[in-house]
């Protein structure tokens, strides 16, 4: 096999029909600008925390809106809330607010379990 210097990632699959989207819907109500996200990755590319950790904010918010919440609370605490991602988002998504609300929703989720 030829070594191209990279590997194609294994495909991830999820079922939106069986996913629990309650928290994702709550997030969209709290931060309506998130409906405009086109998943371009500009937020991840500019992220301050990304320079020092493997934090990937696009992966985190995409997982959240797909109902894949496992491990996200731990990931979200890598964010320093500097707001740089909000400044560069081409769609005007209020990412700082999005992150704060994801943390709050996940915290309340833990309390009710
Ligand atoms: S930069 Fe904005 S539009 Fe692009 S993935 Fe991030 S939140 Fe979505
Ligand atoms: S607010 Fe958080 S996610 Fe956004 S650039 Fe700063 S550290 Fe990264």
Distinctive features:
mainly alpha; 0% strand; globular; binds iron/sulfur cluster
Quick recap:
With 113 residues, this protein is an all-alpha fold. The protein has helices spanning 22-30, 42-46, 57-65, 72-76, 84-88, 95-112.
Fold topology:
Blueprint: H1 22-30, H2 42-46, H3 57-65, H4 72-76, H5 84-88, H6 95-112
The site of one iron/sulfur cluster (SF4) has 13 residues, from helix 2.
Structure notes:
The protein has 113 residues and is mainly alpha-helical. The protein has one domain (32-112). It has helices at residues 22-30, 42-46, 57-65, 72-76, 84-88, 95-112. Helix 1 (22-30) runs antiparallel to helix 6 (95-112). It starts with 21 loop residues before the first helix and ends with a helix. The protein binds iron/sulfur cluster (2 copies). One iron/sulfur cluster (SF4) binds at residues 47-49, 57, 79-85, 95-96, 99.
**How many whole angstroms does the radius of gyration measure?**
15 Å
Q: Gap between N and C termini, in Å?
A: 49 Å
Question: In which range does the helix fraction lie?
Answer: 40-55%
Q: What fraction strand?
A: under 5%
Number of strands: 0
Overall shape: it is: globular
How many independent structural domains?
1
């Amino acid at each position: 096999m030829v070594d191209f210097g990279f590997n194609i990632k294994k495909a991830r699959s999820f079922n939106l029909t069986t996913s629990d989207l309650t928290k994702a819907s709550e997030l969209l109500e709290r931060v309506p600008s998130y409906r405009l996200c086109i998943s371009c990755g500009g937020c991840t590319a500019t992220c301050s925390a990304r320079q020092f950790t493997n934090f990937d904010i696009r992966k985190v918010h995409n997982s959240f809106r797909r109902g894949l919440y496992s491990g996200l609370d731990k990931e979200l605490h890598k964010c320093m809330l500097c707001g740089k991602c909000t400044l560069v988002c081409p769609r005007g998504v209020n990412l700082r607010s999005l992150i704060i609300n994801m943390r709050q929703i996940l915290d309340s989720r833990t309390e009710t379990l």
